[in-house]
Fold each of these.
Amino acid sequence: MRKLALVGMLVLGLFIGQAQAESAKVLVATGGIGGVYYYYGTQIAEILTKNNAVPATAIQTAASVDNMLLIRDKTNPDKKTYFLATVLPDTAYFTVTGKHEKFAEKPVKASILWMMYPNFLHIVTTDQSGIKSLADLKNKRVSPGAPGSGTEFTALNLLKAAGIEPENFKKWERLGAKESAEALVNGTIDAYFWSGGLPTGSIVELANTLKRKGMNLALVPLAETDPGVAAFMKEFKGLADPTVIPKDVYGLKEDVPTLAFWNMFMAPESLPEDLAYTITKTVFENLQTLHASVKPSKDTTAENTARFVGKTAIAFHPGAVRYFKEKGLVK
């Protein structure tokens, strides 16, 4: 009788989860057309819809901050409408804690479903700049990234943790990756920040251009022993993963220590646990489809996500945690 009761409970649970999925509506907030977020989110929506997990539609957005606003302001549990989103980790942290100006009075209540793929932080310079550490950026001409970009957001937070303010620089430019590379070649800046995948095409091109001019590309090391890096990692617990940029990626003399920032796939806390479980399970049972369509998604694996559970400043959704526990990857 106990076995029959247990089976009945399991069947009832599956039925309730399926009923929730059928009546719910999911919108996946992505990013601009042409960016990885857009293609990643679009593929997630297709996987969820085609596998009958939940009807899902991907929408183009201005990316991370916009996406967290949608989770906060447009999710409507009463109408069973839920926004999921691709988000940079430090943006997620600032919006959940209310440290971002747009969320100061009303932080977003969101949690992580899984980790997507890492962005590697680059501080790009030349072997003739004299910049060997984060502290050496003082009194130099520096670009932290384009205005409002994820790169600039990360750069400013790292510099603040290191006690370096904009007035400490000889020149303060706000340029995108391509424009920063051109400025470095032309000698109008000494270094610039970039957060992206490996390899980043514009940096590969930069390395070749510098060689033709008798210079070599150099990346500023961001080791855990650096006081500024240590302070940053303490403040943003679990959001920055110590790693290295292999020397072969850009033809460097040695591997360069840096930080990897794992993009997060987020959901509102109000997303029902059974639905969060179904969404997570469906995606991870169809990873081959995602990996075949979006190259950076090769790092979206159950193992990569599991090692972050319980170790990040933002909590994982209980429904997602249930899936990783079921897989034996989380205790």
Note: The two ends are 30 Å apart (CA to CA).
Amino acid sequence: MLLNHYSDFLIECGTDEAGKGCLAGPVTAAAIILPKNFSLHLLNDSKQLSEKTRALLKPIIETEAISFAVTHLDPLVIDDINILNASIKAMQESILKLNPIPEYIIVDGNRFKPLNQIPYTTIVKGDSKYLSIAAASVLAKTYRDEYMDKIHEEFPMYNWKKNKGYPTVEHREAIKKYGTTKYHRMSFRLLPEQLKLDF
């Protein structure tokens, strides 16, 4: 059973990101403030849910949320400041878009940086413990998947519609065969040693 609230503050937001381990596409974060009495039977960590269930939950979460926001940070930013900093920045930017401003932040994972003196707690596996983080994980994942489906049309040979930019064998084979695109993260190890690109 996921818990509704972590702190004693009334306006608490949960935040999470998706796409940290991908070779292509943005890192996407969501932040959300849910009503105190919010409950949603199927809601869990987005990785535990099927694509169909996530799609079903997304409009319910958006309708019932007091406020929510989503941020994509593209590969150029990831390559510039590294994936950990980009993940935190995407979460922070999402939080800054919320209205009202949260009085407390709960973050999935174990890393975050202070934001405008708002108190926060990082919670490992928070997306399977707290409703707001689970809801943020569903939004981050669904918005990022939609983005990957869209750029798939531009570069269908990488099959991002299916792999969403993750390092699958198929994705790596396509990188080996076709090279990289503007959506690839050049600071990532795109190919294992034995699959070096011949420049």
Note: The chain has a mean pLDDT of 94.
